[in-house]
């Protein structure tokens, strides 16, 4: 499926050029190149240990690169200072002390706190953004519930809402559906699809669910030391074999694919 937003002259949100990342004595990313434009819904796939999480962490300067360039909104990440435009939810975001007395709305509100405003109280605009983010992730009805009382899928939605509360241009999620059952997983990806369409938010998500990538996303990025990308998901079998091996066989399972807008 080709993105409706992939037009000539579309704004590049993320550009990676000749990226090399070395951890210990091992090259984890070799000569990587990637371009993500505004409104893309990107699925990042690849075998375990292939470098998916390393790629995300390098984008956010959590891991140093050996060489190459990473640009966000046209600026090299070394000089980039508008990090509120990019939100990142790591793999283990939902793992915390479940006895901590925090409601869903309070958790989501933490997304509005930055170093520049740590000493001020949240204002009406902040709380409106919090409520908008919860509505976008279909958890408004959980507003006053304690975080420890939520299911795994509800916790994931709450942490994504926390990231969305900052109203970012790009949302990056590292394996957000680990441990979710099939029904929760399908509902989660549908909700993200609605966020991408309604807000024109650029979404990058590491996923092991290839059917969800083919069904809902506009771009696939395959990572296994090298980075491969395609905007034409109808003809991606060859790309997947490069990453997973020639023995790879992809069998689709039923997904309730996207229309113009899905109900959450």
Task: Walk me through what this model shows.
With 264 residues, the protein is of the alpha/beta class. The protein has a single domain, classed as Rossmann fold (3-Layer(aba) Sandwich), CATH 3.40.50.300. The protein contains seven helices and ten strands. The strands form two sheets. Strands 6-7-8-3-9-10 form a six-stranded mixed β-sheet, with helices on both faces. Strands 2-1-4-5 form a four-stranded antiparallel β-sheet, with helices on one face. β1 and β2 (26-37) form a beta hairpin. The longest helix has 18 residues, at 182-199.
Ordered list of secondary-structure elements with their pairings:
Layout: E1 12-23, E2 26-37, E3 41-45, H1 52-59, E4 67-72, E5 75-76, E6 86-89, H2 104-109, H3 124-136, H4 152-164, E7 170-174, H5 182-199, E8 202-206, H6 210-216, E9 219-224, E10 226-230, H7 237-244
Parallel strand pairs: 3-8, 3-9, 6-7, 7-8
Antiparallel strand pairs: 1-2, 1-4, 4-5, 9-10
Helix pairs in contact: 3-4
User: Quaternary state, please?
Assistant: single chain
Instruction: Show unreliable segments.
Output: 1-7, 259-264
- The helix/strand series, from N terminus to C terminus, equals EEEHEEEHHHEHEHEEH
Number of helices: 7
- Examine the coordinates and then state which fold CATH places here, giving the name of the CATH topology: Rossmann fold
The CATH class turns out to be: Alpha Beta
| Terminal-residue CA separation | 21 Å
Rg of Cα set:
18 Å
Class by SSE composition? alpha/beta
CATH superfamily: P-loop containing nucleotide triphosphate hydrolases
Number of domains in the coordinates? 1
């Amino acid at each position: 499926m080709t993105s409706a937003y992939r037009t000539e002259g579309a704004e590049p949100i993320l550009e990676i050029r000749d990226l090399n990342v070395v951890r210990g004595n091992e090259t984890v990313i070799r000569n990587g190149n990637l371009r993500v434009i505004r409104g893309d819904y990107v699925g990042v796939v690849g075998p375990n240990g292939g470098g998916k999480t390393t790629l995300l962490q390098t984008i956010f300067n959590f891991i140093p690169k050996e060489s190459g360039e990473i640009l966000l909104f046209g600026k090299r990440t070394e000089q980039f200072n508008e990090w509120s435009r990019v939100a990142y939810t790591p793999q283990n975001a939902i793992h915390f002390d479940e006895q901590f007395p925090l409601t869903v709305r309070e958790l989501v509100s933490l997304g509005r706190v930055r170093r520049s405003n740590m000493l001020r109280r949240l204002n009406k605009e902040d709380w409106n953004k919090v409520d908008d983010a919860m509505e976008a992730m279909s958890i408004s009805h959980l507003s006053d519930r304690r975080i420890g009382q939520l299911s795994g899928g509800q916790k994931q939605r709450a942490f994504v809402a926390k990231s969305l509360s900052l109203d970012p241009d790009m949302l990056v999620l590292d394996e957000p559906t680990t441990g979710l059952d099939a029904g929760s997983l399908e509902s989660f990806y549908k909700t993200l699809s609605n966020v991408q369409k309604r807000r024109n938010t650029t979404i990058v998500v590491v996923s092991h669910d290839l059917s969800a990538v083919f069904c809902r996303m506009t771009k696939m990025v395959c990572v296994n030391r090298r980075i491969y990308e395609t905007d034409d998901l109808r003809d991606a079998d060859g790309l997947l074999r490069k990453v997973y091996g020639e023995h790879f066989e992809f069998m689709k399972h039923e997904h309730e694919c996207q229309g113009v807008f899905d109900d959450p």
